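Weekly puzzle thread! Below is a chain. First person to post its structure in token form gets bragging rights.
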Amino acid sequence: MNTNEVHGRLSYLDGARGLASFCVLIHHFFMLVYPTFLYQGLDLNIQSELVVLMAHTPLGIWCDGNFAVTFFFVLSGFVLFYSYEEYKLSTLITLIKACLRRYIRLTLPIIAVCFATFVLLKLNLVYSFQADSLNKEKWIGKFLLTNYSWYDVIIQAAYENYINFKNSKTFSPVLWTIGVELKGSFIVFTLIYLKKYIKPNWLKILIFLALSIYSMNTYYLCIFFGVLIAFIKKNKTILSHFKKFQWLYLLGFIYLGGVRDLDHPLYAWFKMISTDKYSHLLTFKIIGSVCLMLLLITNSKIQCVLQKNVFLYIGKLSYSLYLTHFLILITLGSYLHLNASIFVNFCISTVLAMLTAHLFNFLIDAPSIRISKGLFNRRVNKL
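Winning reply:
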């Protein structure tokens, strides 16, 4: 048996998920202290040379939250398709249960985060508005509700987060991704359910291609790529062929996944193709995420590294860290931005973010998983 796969669980993916969550934390910290890290071209001459370099080249991939998000979606499509067998979604009832289970698993922690933000705002412990006054380009201060009530907490967490998300009316700007995650999950569950009713393989392929093309230049395309990679992983013959191109996946992961500035000389060739920067920037990051996912399932050495206890621990906290780190940045992180050095702020904020994620996982996230699993009679491995 492959030591990287135990009882159907690919534990190295936990490590990858954890690193991606930590990457989002670092990205948002940079956005707090260096907003021009995202808004390239604005006063970058006053930033450190390292920050400028990371803002324009693939060297910044380790703190590129946008890339981490696309990887999250690819990973989600992979995990859901790989772990849910057809017999567990064999009836309409099991399909509905799977969707409800996913909704509850994602939503209960969101309610807790929105509630915590609400309380912090009421107690005047949020300093993000003051912190943004130090920056020419505003970022962290332009989020959060200015007029809010208990009703807003429930509506935001249970409904608007998934249906009508707005950055200017939120308790956390990271919540938009959960809406994509939930709807993407429903799509994957439905595809698995319909597999037994669609017999011809050519028709399955045609439907999959049609959905993928329809979702072009959207984050849902990541979900479909994840499903495709899960199919590759399940077929040992096909997987053996893909293992021959690991160096190509590594190059694609760094060069395309790490793209930040299409005006940089490294990407000069792009101007000959198109002038639409944003949509193609997203496409490049999606391809880079696909390359990273292929690298993960084909390279045993990387798998072994990601199975180290430290990475597995961060992976265990990944959802909690992703949801709660913004709480730290709008409170203590923003306060220290006003009163301490960037290095001190980073060290204290990072440690506190990890501690908060650990506590949140114990009190909120882990119980929400147990509650959601109660909707399924049969156990499904959580990758």
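Puzzle host: Confirmed. Bonus trivia for everyone else. Residues 5-373 form one domain.
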